[in-house]
């Protein structure tokens, strides 16, 4: 008789329980089937199909150019690989701001066409109507506050946010509004660690930090940055676990040399 090992899928309920237990939540971005397979096998709790694909996959300077169709393509690729992780997909710029009906339609398309488990939106009280409308339709929503890359031209810089009292107070108001609206979690990006701690302790839902200190309920990084595929990007919050840029560069150079020297393929590598 064959024995099948049960794989327990991560859900919003699981993440809520993890916060209550004090168990940290691990989260990385993923954009394709092969990488998502590895990350899911590794045991990541959450995979974020981030609009950062605009930067690391397509080479754009900002996250703004990526489209809803492109996000659905990446999300569907990730979903095909995943057996355990909870998969959240960014709603791209222009697909939800200022129009809650459009926001709902965008979220529905992501859920139906990719099979994702939830969506993420940037912003606070100004997007509450969109958040509420999406959640009312039964779609889990994760918030995103602090440095919100879709608003980079408003900020004018990728520097740390909410260092001043006025902006910090707005962030604290926004997190409570997002929680009250029904968000299952909130990403906090590039804010002072003390504020990350205060906010995380004020909420009953999990916070996921990126450059927001160790007191958030979980952490997220862009996987391409974490494994060293991106060149020259080394912000303070990034811990680089591999240097795949150099490894792949060396492998490609060795391949070129073997081809040029007619050393590849050898006798064992042909039919």
UniProtKB/TrEMBL annotation:
What Gene Ontology terms describe what this protein does at the molecular function level?
A: 3-methyl-2-oxobutanoate hydroxymethyltransferase activity; magnesium ion binding
Q: Where in the cell is it found?
A: Cytoplasm
Quote the record's cofactor note. Answer: Binds 1 Mg(2+) ion per subunit.
What keywords are assigned to this protein?
Cytoplasm, Magnesium, Metal-binding, Pantothenate biosynthesis, Transferase
- Organism domain of life: Bacteria
Q: What is its EC number?
A: 2.1.2.11
Task: Name the active site residues.
Answer: 189 (proton acceptor)
Report residues binding Mg(2+).
Answer: 51, 90, 122
Asked if the record carries the keyword tRNA-binding, the reply is: no
What residues bind 3-methyl-2-oxobutanoate, as annotated? 51-52, 90, 120
Q: In which pathway does it act?
A: Cofactor biosynthesis; (R)-pantothenate biosynthesis; (R)-pantoate from 3-methyl-2-oxobutanoate: step 1/2
* Reported cofactor(s): Mg(2+)
* InterPro entries named among the record's database cross-references: Pantoate_hydroxy_MeTrfase (IPR003700), Pyrv/PenolPyrv_kinase-like_dom (IPR015813), Pyrv_kinase-like_dom_sf (IPR040442)
Kindly state a single biological-process term from the GO annotations of this entry. Answer: pantothenate biosynthetic process
Pfam families assigned:
Pantoate_transf
Record's keyword annotation contains Acetylation:
no
Reaction equations catalysed:
(6R)-5,10-methylene-5,6,7,8-tetrahydrofolate + 3-methyl-2-oxobutanoate + H2O = 2-dehydropantoate + (6S)-5,6,7,8-tetrahydrofolate
Show the GO cellular component annotation of the record. Answer: cytoplasm
> Would you identify the family this protein belongs to, as annotated?
Belongs to the PanB family.
Annotated NCBIfam families: panB, PRK00311.1
Q: What does the subunit comment say?
A: Homodecamer; pentamer of dimers.
Role = Catalyzes the reversible reaction in which hydroxymethyl group from 5,10-methylenetetrahydrofolate is transferred onto alpha-ketoisovalerate to form ketopantoate.
Q: What is this protein called?
A: 3-methyl-2-oxobutanoate hydroxymethyltransferase
Quote the gene name from the UniProt entry: panB
